[in-house]
Amino acid sequence: MKEFDYFRPSSLDECLKLLDQMRGRARILAGGTDLLVRLKHDMIREDNIVDIGRLDELHGVHVDGGDVHIAPLTTHNEIVESGLCDEVPVLKKACAQVGSPQIRNRGTIGGNVVNASPAGDTIPALSVHGAHVKLKSIDGERTIPIEELFTGPGRTAMRDNEILVDIVVPTIANGEIGFFKKLGQRNAMAISIVNIAVILSMNRSSKIIERAAVAVGSAAPTVIRCIEVENLMAGSRIDSAERLWEIAMKIRDRVSPISDVRASARYRAEMSANLFYEGMLELGVI
Amino acid sequence: MDLKYVGKDIPRVDAYEKVTGTTKYMSDLSFDGMLWGKVLRSIHPHALIKSIDTSKAKALPGVEAVVTWEDVPGLNGFGIAIQDQPVLCKDKVRYAGDAVAAVAAVSKEIAEEAALLIEVEYEVLPVVDDPIRAIEPDSPKVHESGNILLHTEIRKGDIDKGFDEADLIIENTYYASRQEHAFLETEDGIALIEEDGTLTVYAGSHYPHRDQLQLSRCLNMPVEKIRVVSSPVGGAFGGKDELTIQPIMALLALKTGKPVKMVMPREESIISYWKRHPMIMIYRTGVKRDGTLVANDVKVYADTGAYASLGGPILNLALESSCGLYRIPHVHIDGYSVYTNNGISGAFRGFGVPQVTFAMESQMDIIAEKLGLDPIEFRRKNILKKGEVAPIGHHITTDVESEAVLDAMEGSRLWRERERYRGTDKNRPWIKRGVGLALSWQGMGLGVGLPDFGDAVIEMDPDGGFIVRVGCVEIGQGAMTVYAQVAAEALRFPIERIRVVIGDTRNAPDAGPTTASRAAYVGGKAIFLAAEEMNEKIKGYASGMLSVSPDEIEIDDGSAYVKTAKDKRVSYEEISSYAIERGGLPVAEGHFDLPTADKAIEGAFGLPHHIYSCCGQIAAVEVNTLTGQARVTDGAVVVDAGTVINQGGLEGQSEGGFVMGTGYALTEDLIIENGVVKTPNFSTYIIPTSKDMPSSIETIPVTNYESTGPFGAKGIGEIGMVPTAPAVTNAIYDAADIRVFKIPATGERIYELLKQKKGENK
Q: Could you tell me where the beta strands, DSSP code E, fall in B214-278?
């Protein structure tokens, strides 16, 4: 493991100044569940580690208007256990399936997002919830839709002096239902072969879907929204299993996964469709 | 016999220290002035070494020694059976992970940095990675002698005649993956030079006395000058049977005169050390319409990797069990253990038998289904019993409880209620459930022609308690507890006052390896024999103290008394004082030779075994046909255990074995491509977690008294994982109508099979 300088700012302002001085030569340490592994394997270029663990302002959940604000240092387990997060149920389900109890107690949602792994479990969930992320630097702050944050595997649109300060998740509307599904090689401590999040606004009696959001992870360089599928479902009713298959096949056609030691590209593509199909049946859409 | 300790609910003697974290494993030890060792390993699977330049590494401040092949004082080779693996490679590397040089430095970081400064010039050679291709004469050679480590061919009856008699012939090729032991503690330890010049090596392993012998050869040092402490072990499952880091640590300690510690990171451990042999198994099985097996033609290719270690014996053990525990008149078995550049394969719980059991028990399931026979009834019809001729041609002369195991499987809750565990899920019709079973057998001990014995020593200590010394190791299986129970029972003495000393060449006598399901059986029997001698000595002292003849003395619960006048008694404290006054505390020795077969199988060294155990398992599985993923929901393990010494220990072995077998069946696959490990950590090498466990595993012992074992016990350390994979894959067939010929049956593989089937049905 290479040597590095370690900083632990005691305020956000101090942190922003540090990041501005270092300009891309710093790596932020939050829960450390990913960074420490990378450090051990000499996979980190930067010479400076900025530990934001003491920045209380970056920690916790609150509700403001129709939005749940989740500060980036909030751990997966805190989200799972937070009553306030009942209003963002698909995200809660995703957080419950990350890693293991130990990882969920250490790992933060901000880390999972900024890491920009195509397989990050919270990202498709945040996407279908319509989440935005607030980025801040010494120059000011900006808020962008979560999908715009990601530019490639492990790459984001963040500037080299910016830090994630808030994740804004609209609460689920009355009548909206959804699911998060993850296919791993085992039932815990698994990296997703494919994951999928869906939120539907569906009339319970007519089963007409008014609006749909579908996001798939680990099946493309970044998490992707399946807009064509969403439009296909909007305003219609899925009246048969055959129709559901047809829609699922559109997801398979939309993804562009890779082959690796966990799964082949072909399996990933088929699973993106099959997880959707299974989840929709379990939701009772037909 | 009225038993007080054996078979009773005795807590593990090491439980408190283990759960409170005070147990010192070898990786927990440290000494003043200790250095850290680091190995430089080949990144090439196959290459010639043109030069090694250590000058930059030696010049790095903090480096105290750099060693290469030139520093090996004795034989630069080790291996339990054949010593063809260099301690440090001289002119050729044969797998990516082969040790080339090593460094000792004042810190771990400096040692790591220095290792990278060693410059090795290689000439890369073509990689030998396909064991079938490797035996062709024009294949590049891993060793000068050729790529066939061992070829064993066994014939019984007339195989052609057998197939002529058959009404149904089933032919299939099976593939079993390379499995990683995944012990908690990697290959770690310390070597140091004592003041008297003795080399002491602390490193977890299966057999300290053999480590001592191998080190003596490599270091050119007399065995008396080497002490090996190899217990407690943080898990091994066969993976620490062969030497690992010991000779390299020893070289560095000898060179520096200081203690040298090494701790393998997980990736280095996985890349560099032993694995279960991948096998390709081609089976052709003939059966009559009524379900009588008539012929079995078996061909096995075992990928033994770069060095011999136990590759030969593992092949032969696999072949011994390759036809199952069945009466088959016409047999042809042909096996190859083949060198490749695919890492190194060696001992692993089951020792070749899980692979062939997967193949044979799949064949059995296929045949039963084709003939419309109940799978237990079909096995019962063909099952071998004591006195009959085994598939490799020898008579089975000891009790193997094959029929009782089948009866217990049939009577188990899971089998009786199997309909509850079968069929399609009502609410989620893409979930299919099924139940499968498999049967296995396995020889105990090392086999014919190999020295297989155990020594134990019992000493009375000054306060009238006992010290029991036996060379086997506590590998996590509970050996210390079993030894304490056997000693307490045989000495008729309180277990709390018995101290067990194991796994140390200085402080415990050689009892052979803690392998081959033999530690409880051999070590326990040696202790039993030592206790009998100790009891005689105690009776001798008591007779002197009580002025009666020794025959009139009875012993129980820490005192000796006159049979006819129970108030005339002496305590063991009094006996110890009495003995000390008369020249010393009593010491007793027990020696046990494991009974072996009287006739060897020609051309198959080590075969046959003499004592066998038998195990049957049932698995309930659910298959998600949308994802292909299978999950084991329930299990039953019936094991021919002889007397159960410790029920908790038996359940631990059986549940642990079942879970390990589940991982083998469904997820575990150490992938090597072009000689390079693709799954070097637990993020990519997938072992089951608590969330992948079945909701229940029932352990059902069959407890026929084994007359040669301690209080009638047999060894059960390995067999609990042997039949699991085929039980699971047979259950997958029952659930989803697909046959698995390649394990692990990952979600993707099952999904592909489901798609193929769908295509065929269209």
A: 226-229, 260-263, 274-275
Which H or E run contains B320? Answer: helix B311-321
Q: How far is Cα B375 from Cα B181, in angstroms, rounded to an integer? A: 31
What is the 8-class DSSP label of residue B342?
S
Q: Which CATH architecture has domain A5-51?
A: 2-Layer Sandwich (3.30)
B348 to chain A, closest Cα gap in Å? 23
Q: Report domain A56-170's class.
A: alpha beta
Partners of residue B689 in chain A, C-beta under 8 Å: 100, 186-189
> Of chain A residues 98-157, which have a CB less than 8 A from chain B?
100
Q: What is the CATH T-level fold of the domain A176-283, as seen in this structure?
A: Enolase-like; domain 1 (3.30.390)
Domain ranges of chain A: 5-51, 56-170, 176-283
Residue B762: which pLDDT band, with cuts at 50, 70 and 90? low
Say yes or no for a CB contact (<8 Å) between A191 and B747.
no
From residue B551, give the alpha-carbon distance in Å to each of B434, B460, B563, B566.
62, 21, 9, 14
Rounded CA separation B156/B288 (Å): 18
- B416-467 pLDDT, tens per residue? 999 999 999 999 999 999 999 999 999 999 988 888 999 999 999 999 999 9
- What is the distance between the alpha carbons of residues A265 and B376, in angstroms, rounded to a whole number? 41
**pLDDT at residue B1, as a whole number:** 63
H/E segment holding residue B438: strand B431-443
Residue of B nearest to A276 (CA): B626
Tell me the chain A residues in contact with residue B428 when contact means C-beta distances shorter than 8 Å: 278, 281-282
Q: What is the complex's ipTM, to 2 decimals?
A: 0.96
For residues A218-243, give the mean pLDDT.
97
Q: Is the pTM of this model over 0.95?
A: yes
Please name the residues between 155 and 184 in chain A that touch chain B, using a CB distance below 8 Å. 183
List phi, psi (to 5°) of B212: -60, -45
B231 in Cβ contact with B504 (< 8 Å): yes
Please check whether the two domains, A5-51 and A56-170, share a CATH topology: no
Residues B695, B633: contact at Cβ < 8 Å?
yes
